[in-house]
């Protein structure tokens, strides 16, 4: 069993409208845009990152906004719900705020003994806020939401699978342990994680596979401290039979990818070097940052990409 995984690093999804996506996460959820760059493989498209003040691993939601993308078809073989942690007693505040902001799909329930507020994103994406009484992670408060209510980072993510057995074994190999079950959903967690510690497995054998599109999660990333730990994880996964990519430099972290038995794309990402490698912390996310291989496209991209903060 591996011990290098420290919880979630980031979750990356697909969107259609970059400006609406930016407004939803920065204005409605009060997160910080910690980086605006481009998709390394398709530089005509943004890669937007939202999180806490510095983009701490375990707090970062990221998006590829493709202007002409169709809406995704939700199903199995993908991430279902991405859940954020908020302080205990704040769901009333959030329900009122999100309703006033025009957010849809709002409902209150309880899962694994915790109060939960469910809602949908601009593309129909599924989110929850979960009350966590002892989450000590620092909140970003310059987004207009006070420290008593603000999001602390990820709480969990769910995987919708036709058969959860092999993916459950993979997660246990990665250091997770089963901690609870609720209404047929298994929760796996890390004892010494970064706060974004839980993965829920929803087994839905009669549901067809999802189709990637706007509102779909593209991949889910798990955190390791550094490149040395990442290489250890890569070797262990390959020794177990997984097809893992070489290490890829993503400027703000190094990444490896592999497809899970249930069809979900997993990434293992390093905590180093971080989002302040090319911007001062006080100005994260303000300027368009391009990887060196695409810097020659700057003038073209600045003309082409949709302004994020326009009225």
TrEMBL record:
<dbReference type="InterPro" id="IPR037523">
    <property type="entry name" value="VOC_core"/>
</dbReference>
<dbReference type="InterPro" id="IPR052537">
    <property type="entry name" value="Extradiol_RC_dioxygenase"/>
</dbReference>
<feature type="domain" description="VOC">
    <location>
        <begin position="153"/>
        <end position="271"/>
    </location>
</feature>
<dbReference type="InterPro" id="IPR004360">
    <property type="entry name" value="Glyas_Fos-R_dOase_dom"/>
</dbReference>
<feature type="domain" description="VOC">
    <location>
        <begin position="7"/>
        <end position="132"/>
    </location>
</feature>
<protein>
    <submittedName>
        <fullName>VOC family protein</fullName>
    </submittedName>
</protein>
<dbReference type="InterPro" id="IPR029068">
    <property type="entry name" value="Glyas_Bleomycin-R_OHBP_Dase"/>
</dbReference>
<dbReference type="Pfam" id="PF00903">
    <property type="entry name" value="Glyoxalase"/>
</dbReference>
């Amino acid at each position: 069993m591996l011990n290098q995984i420290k919880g979630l690093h980031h979750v990356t999804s697909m969107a259609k409208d970059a400006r609406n996506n930016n407004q939803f996460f920065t204005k409605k959820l009060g997160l910080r845009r910690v980086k605006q760059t481009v998709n390394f493989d398709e530089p005509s498209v943004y890669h937007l990152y939202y999180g806490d003040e510095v983009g701490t691993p375990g707090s970062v939601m990221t998006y590829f906004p493709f202007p002409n993308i169709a809406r995704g078809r939700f199903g199995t073989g993908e991430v279902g719900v991405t859940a954020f942690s908020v302080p205990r007693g704040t769901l009333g505040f959030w329900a009122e705020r999100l309703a006033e902001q025009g957010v849809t799909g709002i409902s209150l329930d309880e899962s694994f003994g915790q109060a939960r507020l469910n809602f949908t994103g601009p593309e129909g994406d599924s989110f929850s806020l979960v009350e966590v009484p002892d989450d000590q992670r620092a909140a970003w408060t310059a987004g207009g939401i006070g420290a008593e209510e603000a999001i602390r980072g990820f709480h969990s993510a769910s995987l919708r699978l036709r058969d959860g057995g092999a993916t459950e074994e993979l997660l246990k190999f990665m250091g997770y342990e089963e901690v609870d079950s609720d209404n047929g959903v298994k929760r796996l967690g890390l004892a010494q994680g970064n706060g974004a510690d839980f993965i829920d497995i929803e087994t839905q054998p009669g549901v067809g596979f999802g189709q990637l599109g706007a509102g779909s999660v593209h991949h889910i990333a798990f955190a390791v401290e550094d490149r040395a730990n990442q290489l250890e994880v890569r070797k262990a996964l390959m020794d177990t039979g997984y097809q893992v990519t070489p290490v890829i430099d993503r400027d703000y972290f190094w990444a490896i990818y592999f497809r899970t038995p249930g069809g979900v794309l997993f990434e293992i990402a390093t905590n180093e070097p971080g989002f302040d490698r090319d911007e001062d912390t006080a100005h994260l996310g303000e300027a368009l940052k391009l990887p060196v291989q695409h810097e020659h496209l700057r003038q073209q991209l600045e003309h082409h990409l949709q302004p994020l903060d326009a009225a």
